[in-house]
Structure formats: structure tokens, C-alpha cells
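Researcher: I'm preparing a figure for a lab meeting and need a structural model of a single chain. I don't have an experimental structure, so a prediction will have to do for now. The sequence is pasted below. Please return the structure as C-alpha cells so I can convert it later.
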Amino acid sequence: MATMYYESDADLSILADKTIGIIGYGSQGHAHSLNLLDNGMNVKVGLYEGSSSWAKAQSAGLNVDIVSKVAEQSDVIMLLIPDTSQADVYQSSIQPHLHSGKTLMFAHGFNIHFKTIVPPTDIDVSMIAPKAPGHRMREVFTKGSGVPGLLAIEQNVSGKAKEIGLAYAKGVGCTRAGVLETTFKEETETDLFGEQAVLCGGVTQLMKSAFEVLTEAGYQPESAYFEVMHELKLIVDLMYEGGMEYMRYSVSDTAEYGDYSRGPKVIDPTVKENMKKILLQIQDGSFAKEWITENDEGRPRFRQLRKENANHPIESVGKELRSMMPWLKS
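Model: Understood. Here is the structure written out cell by cell.
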């Protein structure tokens, strides 16, 4: 049975005499920083000199300095910059300031699990991974709620790594919703798999294929867009609220029967076999190696794939239709 932690399991006072350094002020960085600040924590934001986020963070009432100074001055250091930047920033600006008694934290396990960052053995290493985009995390926090999170401990030198991690989770609001205990390995591998097989790769490829089938059969691109992309949010919202059962309760019997009888013909056993191959490439490190190499070489394949997908007809049709629905941006 999974271990979950809530408000009563965390003691925010553990962080009362500590300085928390947040490295980065993007989607996650701004949410962590502001939520911790609202909870009375001593927060510093570390950015590179000339960062466009510098003035934003200062205007929000946060202390800002270059990464190396924040790392030097902080007891708890949370890395919230992209995975592909973390190793270089760690080597140049953080590692020189890590000494016994400090805590190094992450919101994703990629660099620790695949050993592109190898911390010294005399510090605590932990993870608090909120399961929501940063702007959503900040929004629900200001309304008195929170988003779920994951807790993992990689090194527990002090004997208090879990307590510090839970205090941090409370500071950013995750214990309001619940914090699941996991490992760096489990978080990293399941997160990558979810993105590739379902949330990003699987869903977008399914929509593009369905759009192509309809338009190639002579149906209007606009009708195809509405049916295979626009309405997806309505279905996902129902599942988000009450699972597949609630979604099936809410749609028509015709749709429900089509779900049961035709879904398995589209997502057949070969899809599951392909998913297993994807998972294996994550587990054996080959995906991580491929992605690291891609970045080292200047991202040529990534840029080409981004361009190709941006030019897919579903995108141009969707852009035109969404321009007629300004309320979507609210």
C-alpha cells in the first residue's frame, strides 16, 4: 500500500531557521518561491546574470542573486531549471558550495537517477515533485488548497531528510492534497513513460492519426478538429473529476458502447508491446543517453521534429478555429 503524507505529518518549523535557495524562476520556480514566502520561509532565488526573470522575482518581493551566491548562502537548495541545464549549472555554481549539513533538492529525478549529477556523500539529497504545472500550483495555493506531490529520499545523511522534505512539501502546499512516498528511480521512469506513451506522445499521435483518417476520407478539416481534438478536454475533465466510470456515466450509451467495443481495436495488443519497448529504453538509460547527446549536438533532430509537428494541418486548422473562441484563453 502506498504511503501518503498530509498536513499533520509535516512540521514547517523545521525550516524556520534555514535559508531556502530556489534555482530558477520559471513555471515551477515562481510557484515554489512564492508559496514558501507566503508561508513565512526565508527564500532566495538564484538566476543567471541578465535573466529576464530577475525583475519579476524582485517585484514579487523575493531576494534575488546569481546562482553561486544563492547556493553559498542557502541551507536547502532546490533545482528548478530544465533537466538539460542542471548538470552544467550544478558543476559551475552549486557543487563548490555544497558542504556537510546542506540539503540538495529536485522536482524531477532525471539527473540524479541517470547520474549526470553526483552529489557529495555528506549531504542530504531529496525530491519534492508537485504533480501540476507551476501556475496551477500557485493558483490553487492562493485559494487555500494544494496540488499532490511526490517525496523521494536519495541520501539521508542527517537522519532528517524526510522531515525536511515533508516540511518543504508543506511550505509549497503539497501536503494539503497529499504527498506520495516514492523513489528517484520510480518517479523518473514513470514520469518519462507517462509523457512519451500517453500524456504527450501517445495522445498527440492518436489525435493526428484520427484527424488524418477523417480528412483523407473527405470530411471537413474543421469537423475533424472538433471531433478528435477540441472535445478531448471535455472527456479528460470528466475523467479528472471521477475516473473512467464517471466519464462513461456522463456520455451517451452510444459513446459508451463505442468505447468498450472499438477502443481495443484501435489500441490493440501491439500498442502495449510498443509501450513495453519504450519503457525498456527508459529503464536501460538509452533514452536518457539519446536526449543528452541530442542536446550536446545542438538539438538538430529535436528542432526538425518540432518544425514538422508545428506544420501539421491539425495545428493550422486548430489555430483558425480557436481564434473564434476567445473565451478559451480565460
